[in-house]
Amino acid sequence: MKNPIRILARLLFTAVLLFSVLAPLHVSARDMTPEEYAEKVQGYFAEEQWEEGKRLLDEGVEKYSFASNLQFLLGKYWFNAKDYDKSRYYLLKAVDINYDNVEAKQLLVDVEDITQNYSSAICFVNELLEVNPYWRGLWRRKIDLYRKQGNHVEADRLLKRINQIYPQDTVLHKDMVYSMELNYQRQKRAGDRKTAILTLEELLKSVPDNEQYYLDIINLHLQEGEQEQALAWTSRGLAALPGSVTLVYKKVGILSEMNRHPEALAFMRDRMRGRTTPELQRLYNTLVLDAARAERQRDPYVLYGTAFERGDHSREVLDYLLNTSMMRSYNDDALFYLRETKRYYGDDKSVLYKEYLIYRNMGEERQAFNRLMQLCERYPGDEELTDALCRMQLQRADRLMEQELFTEALPAAMFVTRQPTDAETLRAAWEKVFSCRIRMKRYADAMATLDTLATRFPDTENLIGKRALVLDRMGRTSEAMYLYLGAIERADPQMRDFYVAGYADIAIPYIKQCLEEGAMAHAFAEADQLLTLDPSNDQALRYAINAASQMGRDDVFREYTDRGLARHPREPFYLAKKAASLDAEGQYEASIELVRPVLWDYPGNRQLTGALSQSSEYRALDLTRRGRADEALAVLDTALYYDARNKSLLYAKGLAYEKKKEYGLAYFYQQNYEPSAAEFYSFNRHLKGLRYGMLQNEIGLEYLQSRYGDDYAIQSVATLQYTRKQPKNTYTGRVNYAGRNGEREEDINANATSFDGGGVGVQLQGEWIHKFPRDWQTMVNFAWADQYFPRWMGNASVTKFFRRDWEAEARVGYRRLEGRNLWSAGPGVAKFIGPVWLNGKCDFFVIDSKFYYNAMAQVRYYPVDDGRSYVVGMAGIGSAPELSVLDRALPGAFDHANTMVGMGGQYMFAPNITMGLLGTWYTYYTEKRMGYDAVQTRYRNMYNIYVQLYISF
After folding, report:
1. How many helices (H) does the chain have, and how many strands (E)?
2. Residue by residue, what is the 3-state secondary structure of 303-367?
3. Which helix (H) or strand (E) is 596 found in, with range?
4. Element (H, E) at 780
5. Average pLDDT, the chain
6. What is the average pLDDT across 514-536?
7. 461 φ, ψ to 5°?
């Protein structure tokens, strides 16, 4: 007999050697993530080690063909190699996988720029600007691309637009000015004076203090024969550059050329008041001489002015000069002659009125108002003065209301209401008072104003609408709508439409408010009322649909949605609602077919995109539950074409890949899902389970300890196994070890003769699992042992995975037991029901031409969603022992009933570590040696404890 100590030493040496060979695989076999590949490749590229980086990059792309960052790095490599076609291909692929890959889009702009595909480059710049619309460098790049394309018009338009966005950016401002100046020079050389004038006008808006631009535009207008426009530009130039002598000469020259010497003289006098220079004095003297020669006695205004300057201050001279200067809008002259008239003849009524007119024409509102008030105080019964004052106050109120200064506008309007003026002026004043009080939220005062209008001016337009407006603003919207309803009932057809429109103006915001506050029933009732009055009101129909949806009134929801679709068959809102209705009925395919044709024409519409995404997600999840993962992926890929960043769709895609047991892709698509607080723990556990599925190597350590209930002797089996997992194949090598105590006769009847010396048994086993297409899987294993275990053992099984989480198995096996052949065969079936896995199987045995059976049922409950952690319970009965009893070198018996119950569980502490514990209780008929030749047969209980540790890497 072999020495047991030597056999045990060999076994331990074999286990240590196996572990030392497999342990380093933990480092080398672990797959790097796409981010780790990208980081290493970027390091190579940064150090100009392009070929080393390319080799590592090819390895990463082979494993993660859907990783956008790796596709970008391929494009970067070929860009460095100046193979722009390949670079474009991989960069476009990176953007297709991840639409938000900014680096890929930036490099695509460079590729298209270098290859002179400027339109494509502009498209990619536009996509980048969608992400960061305030990226100034991109705007300048886009302008440069337009210029390279030869589209200077669009480049200039864009440059102008970006200057409006960044008015403080001096660089952009200089670019725009330079561009416009180049355009102007080009247009001028081409003889296109009209366009050149327009360009100069834009230039002067940007650079209002450039004297040369003013001179150029003046000269162009003169070349076009447009003297008045040229003269107007000299005035604008002098307003911007009051010290420009050149523009003064230019204006005087134009006026002289137009024979308008009096205006030129008046202009020069105005320029010389208080700031005379020798140069201006010489120009003035020359102008006077020219005017004298040209006009002679033709303009009395000049002659009267000359007479006044020579000392003639008569009333006739002053009246003529004052009236003429007012008529010609020589405001400065008019004020001068007005002061002279007051000095010589006092401020009578006509003089004060003229002063009021001068200030009014000058836009000096306060001065004009003060003069008019002074006149009214002096002459209180003058109707003309009162009417003028009222008109002025109403105009002032209008201006203040345009500036939304209602607090200041109200006193001006109230002032008019207290004046004895005509009815139309008073009506206008009260209406302005009403408007001011509404905008100031003084609704009680506004209602009182309406009462005044209704009493004094009953024919005022739309009193009902105004009263309803006040009631609505006071929070009494229901009263406002009832007021309109009463008017609608009494109105003729023409006025009915007017009142219905007013009713809708109040009802629509009120319905919206009800929806926001959650008063769905009230919102629906009001929307339905509005649709009764105005069936064509689209907004009311939309609100009614939304309210019906929130109230769960599916019949009304469908009816109103169909009504909207009948009126607007391609309107996104109604299509989205119809899709939601179909989703609620489980008609996901019909919903998708409804939305997708229209979405093809409107790919950027959010409502249609959202409806297609939701329907596609429901459809994909339903297909995944039924085991049709490939169809689910096709549905999701179509939806992601329109909504590439939808995290729910990406998560559903990850679930489909998980169903196909492609855990790497499942983890890739599911990791970006944002769970709620309640889902957070379960989601993280699920990700750990996916990470476990990505690991390709596993070492298993198992220990079984058993003993009879009526005996303290312990029997044990230890197992060491290594598993290598691949997408289609799984390979396992397993070593089982058992040691048995020797039985001596002296233990039975005190004789020293050896009965059975015990020893060590070792079993070596290999196993192969292969996955076939269409949800088929096979398993074969083979084992050899020296003793205690079956000498030879072989098993084979075929498993079919059905939809809705059903699976069926058929298996056969062979065992050589103590010189006898044991054949087995049997079916099995399993089913997932939520987190519960049910399994039942039955094995049929043939040994020594006799037939036996064993049936077992098992229930697993997965409390957390990682696919590894569970609690298990099992039970079995048969005329033969359960197969695991025979396989683990435990005693068993045929021809009598064998029963078994068990309970245990398994928990994954980390993706790399899983531990399990299982206890079983067997009751079977067996023999017990009572002496050298005495054997007792009876039923005995055997208790087993299984401990498992799995290390994955």
Report:
1. 41, 16
2. HHHHHHHCCCCCHHHHHHHHHHHHHCCCHHHHHHHHHHHHHHHCCCHHHHHHHHHHHHHHCCHHH
3. helix 588-601
4. strand 776-785
5. 82
6. 85
7. -65, 135
Output Rg (C-alpha) for the chain, integer angstroms.
49
The pLDDT assigned to 167 comes to 63
Please tell me the predicted confidence (pLDDT) of residue 930: 53
For 302-326, the pLDDT digits (tens) are 778 878 888 888 888 888 888 888 8
Long-range Cβ contact pairs of 929-936 (< 8 A, separation 24 or more) = 929/743, 929/748, 930/748, 931/748, 931/749, 932/745, 932/748, 932/749, 932/751, 932/755
What does the block give as tokens for 892? 């068993």
Residue holding tokens 């928990």?
907
pLDDT of residue 303: 76
Q: Say which residue the tokens 């981010």 belong to.
A: 35
User: What CA–CA distance (Å, rounded) separates 470 from 443?
Assistant: 6
Contact 854, 878 (CB under 8 A): yes
The b-or-e profile of 186-196 (16+ CB within 10 A means b, else e) is ebbeeeebeeb
Distance, CA of 739 to CA of 544 (rounded, Å): 80
Phi then psi dihedrals of residue 115, to 5 deg? -85, 10
Instruction: Please state, in angstroms and rounded to a whole number, the distance separating the CA atoms of residues 495 and 497.
Output: 5
For the chain, the residue count is 953
Query: In 10 A of CB 130, how many CB atoms?
Result: 9
Rounded Cα–Cα distance for residues 857 and 464 (Å) = 81
Two tokens at 680? 């957070």
pLDDT tens sequence across 146-189: 778 878 777 777 767 766 666 656 666 666 666 767 777 777 77
Among 216-220, 471-475, 653-657, top mean pLDDT goes to 653-657
Asked whether 443 and 473 are in contact (CB, 8 A), the reply is yes
HSE, side-chain direction, 13 A CA sphere, residue 385: 21
The pLDDT tens digits of the residues spanning 379-393 come to 777 777 777 778 877
Task: Indicate the pairing of strand 898-910 with strand 913-929.
Answer: antiparallel
Burial of 524 (0-12, 13-18, 19+ CB in 10 A): buried
> Which two tokens mark 566?
């009948």
Smallest CA-to-CA distance from 792 within 833, 820, 758 is with 820
> What pLDDT does 427 receive?
81
- Between strands 759-772 and 729-740, the pairing is antiparallel
Give Cα separations from 757 to 4, 11, 540, 707 (angstroms): 10, 19, 95, 19
DSSP-assigned beta bridge partners for residue 945: 705, 919
- What angle is formed at CA 945 by the lines to CA 942 and CA 950, rounded to 5 degrees? 150
Q: What percent of the chain has pLDDT over 70?
A: 90
Find the range with the poorest average confidence among 14-23, 48-57, 508-517, 583-592. 14-23
Higher pLDDT among residues 73 and 11, named by residue? 73
**For the segment 754-808, what is each residue's pLDDT rounded down to a tens digit?**
345 568 889 999 999 999 877 899 999 999 999 888 999 999 999 998 877 889 9
917 forms beta bridges with 905, 947
Rounded to whole angstroms, how far apart are CA atoms 643 and 104?
A: 19
Q: What's the pLDDT band for 227 if we cut at 50, 70, 90? A: confident
CA distances from 876 to 512, 544, 649 (A): 65, 62, 44
Residue 405: partners with Cβ closer than 8 Å, 6 or more residues away: none
Res 20 pLDDT > 70? no
The 8 Å CB, 24+ separation contacts for 434-442 are: 434/466, 435/401, 435/406, 436/397, 436/401, 436/406, 436/409, 436/410, 437/410, 438/469, 438/470, 438/473, 439/401, 439/404, 439/406, 440/406, 440/407, 440/410, 441/473
CB 845 within 8 A of CB 854: yes
Q: Is the pLDDT of residue 296 over 70?
A: no
Distances (CA, A) of 219 to 179, 215, 227, 289: 21, 6, 9, 25
